[in-house]
UniProtKB/TrEMBL annotation:
Protein name: GGDEF domain-containing protein
Boundaries of every EAL domain copy: 302-555
PROSITE patterns: EAL, GGDEF
InterPro entries: Cyclic-di-GMP_PDE-like (IPR050706), EAL_dom (IPR001633), EAL_sf (IPR035919), GGDEF_dom (IPR000160), Nucleotide_cyclase (IPR029787), Rev_trsase/Diguanyl_cyclase (IPR043128)
Alphabetical list of PANTHER family matching this protein: CYCLIC DI-GMP PHOSPHODIESTERASE PDED-RELATED, CYCLIC DI-GMP PHOSPHODIESTERASE PDEF
Organism: Sphingomonas ursincola
Domain (GGDEF) ranges: 157-293
SUPFAM superfamilies linked to this entry: EAL domain-like (SSF141868), Nucleotide cyclase (SSF55073)
């Protein structure tokens, strides 16, 4: 029985901190140095904790700066050491359930927590996750800065840049060998060059950096939304099958975007992009991130689209797509998750991440979210005959959950659509759940009483805390793409997924894996006891009519 409490908090600022010590963060080939730790508080850390830190890749900081501060407060009633609150990197708290400061959800400076008693595996899982979040990339070529500066000087308009980071390359190298991995990178570089040239009429700069990272730049009048849409198209190009040395590979990527500021040099620009890419790698919901302090991912021109979004809803232009979900053990289709797409008349297809970012700037998130769920329920109500057993999964935002009468209105919407609550699953991200567990628990309890099931979405990108997994009335835990995509390759990734699935099983939760793209990943998930999966291996998100035909064929 797994008894530890595990909390992971997004690491704002860590990429910048690491870049100062480990380079600029543009080399994805691995560490040059091991991340460092220091104990914070009274007395030295016990030998078992120090050994676990060493086993998970950490080195003692000594007199130098520490990447991770560890406060072991077990058996103590002291206040948290002051240096924790001022630390810019991760802070790990280890304490008993009776420690006084647990009255606060997240003590200042703490990003991760373990609640004693816990198993050794819980400690090692926590440390591996922190180690992964501290992963830094480095080692720029000396002339890279000059090439970017020369390109910017020769162009007209603002320099728009995107840093694209491929995922799953370690798994490709481990499975097929580095020769195939190198060939895949060369082929991807050519693909990105062709696409960037086509979208920019031949005026883009495309550079392959270290590892699986690519820089694309273009000078034009500032157009943030257009640049974001271009990035989303580039990521779709990356995800298309790649035939290399007799192997068919499927790669995915994350991207960070920036518009160069007046007087900004290449070093500063690349630092911003590197930090943005690090955040994008941790997010399944937002594969494209803006690398500036004004906005994480919403284009500044978004205010011009407020009326467009309103009219798009009125004209039913926002399409609901359905990505099928399957049972791991049998391969049988069990349902689908509803996703949103907007076909904008000027910018083309806009994905859910950008769509909700724009809606958030326009204070329109709740209306948009409700509209998508309503349309999805109406489509799913037509799943009759052989499709009648299929479940529907819908995403719920923090704004939805914060609305009074949310549960009552959700059930009324189901009744109006004619869709059974017992076939519905509502998914909520960790970040939206944690701030007010009591309110979330009450509203979810009312929905579960009517038959609705509740899932935690994108597990592994937020707090990842057993504390809320135990307090909330939950049915499913969804593994984030980042926790599943490399499971067939690196052993460390598999160990983490194995531990998370074991935690879920101990709490009687079913596990759904997102982003499954290969038979090797599916086989590994089956071996670890995962219950359900979704991903490109068996089906992309598709329009309602296409999904209905697809499901009919699957159910035969």
């Amino acid at each position: 029985m797994f008894l530890g409490v595990l909390r992971i908090v997004p690491m704002q600022g860590i990429a910048r901190q690491c870049s100062c010590r480990w380079g600029r963060g543009l080399d994805s080939s691995g560490y040059r140095d091991r991340p460092t730790w220091r104990g914070s508080g009274v007395g030295a850390l016990d030998a078992a904790l120090a050994a676990a830190l060493a086993a998970c890749g950490f080195a003692p900081a000594g007199d130098g700066p520490a990447d991770l501060l560890v406060a072991d407060m077990r058996g103590k009633t002291d206040d948290l050491p002051r240096e924790i609150a001022g630390h810019s990197g991760p802070g790990l708290l280890i304490c008993d359930s009776a420690w006084p400061d647990l009255a606060h959800p997240i003590p200042p400076g703490i990003t991760h927590a373990l609640l004693a008693p816990f198993a050794d595996d819980a400690l090692r899982l926590q440390l591996r996750l922190i180690h992964g979040q501290l992963a830094a990339r480095h080692g720029m070529a000396p002339d890279l800065h000059a090439r970017i500066a020369d390109f910017a000087a020769a162009g007209e308009g603002a320099l728009h840049a995107m840093l694209i980071g491929l995922r799953r390359m370690p798994a490709v190298n481990a499975t097929y060998g580095t020769a195939v991995g190198d060939a895949a990178l060369e082929a991807m570089e050519q693909r990105l060059e062709r696409q960037a040239a086509r979208l920019s009429a031949g005026s883009a700069l495309t550079l392959r950096l270290s590892g699986g990272d690519f820089l694309i730049a273009y000078a034009m009048a500032e157009e943030r939304l257009g640049w974001q849409v271009m990035a989303e198209r580039m990521l779709r190009v990356v995800s298309e099958p790649l035939d290399v040395a007799g192997h068919r590979l499927r790669l995915t990527a994350r991207a960070a975007l920036a518009v160069a500021r007046e007087g900004e040099g290449p070093v500063s620009l690349l630092d911003r992009l590197s930090a943005g890419l690090a955040q994008a790698r941790e997010s399944a919901a937002d594969p494209v991130r803006w690398a500036d302090r004004q906005s994480d991912h919403a284009p500044q021109s978004g205010y011009r689209l407020e009326q467009d979004i309103v009219q798009a809803i009125e004209r039913d232009e926002i399409t609901v797509l359905f990505q099928p979900q399957f049972a791991v053990e049998t391969g049988r289709i069990t349902g689908a998750e509803a996703l949103a797409r907007w076909q904008h008349p000027q910018y083309g297809e806009i994905g859910a991440g950008t769509l909700f970012a724009l809606a958030d700037k326009a204070d329109f998130t709740r209306v948009l979210s409700r509209h998508i769920r309503q349309r999805a329920m109406q489509h799913a109500a037509r799943w009759t005959g052989p499709l009648a057993p299929l479940r529907l999964s819908l995403n719920v935002t923090a704004e939805d959950l914060g609305e009074k009468g949310f549960a009552r209105r959700e059930l009324a919407m189901l009744a109006e659509a004619g869709f059974s609550p017992r076939r519905l699953t509502l998914e909520m991200t960790e970040q939206a759940l944690v701030p007010d567990l009591k309110r979330a628990a009450a509203r979810f309890a009312a929905l579960r009483e009517a038959g609705v099931r509740i899932a935690v979405d994108d597990f592994g990108t937020g707090y990842s805390s057993l504390l809320y997994l135990k307090r909330l009335p939950l049915d499913y835990l969804k593994l984030d793409h980042a926790m599943t995509r490399d499971i067939g390759g690196a052993e460390a990734d598999r160990i983490i997924v194995r531990s998370v699935i074991a935690m879920a099983k101990a709490l009687n939760l079913k596990v759904i894996a997102e982003g499954v793209e290969s038979d090797a990943q599916l086989a590994a998930l089956r071996a670890e006891g995962c219950d359900y999966f979704q991903g490109f291996l068996r089906g992309r998100a598709m329009e309602a009519e296409v999904f209905a035909e697809f499901a009919q064929g699957e159910l035969g």
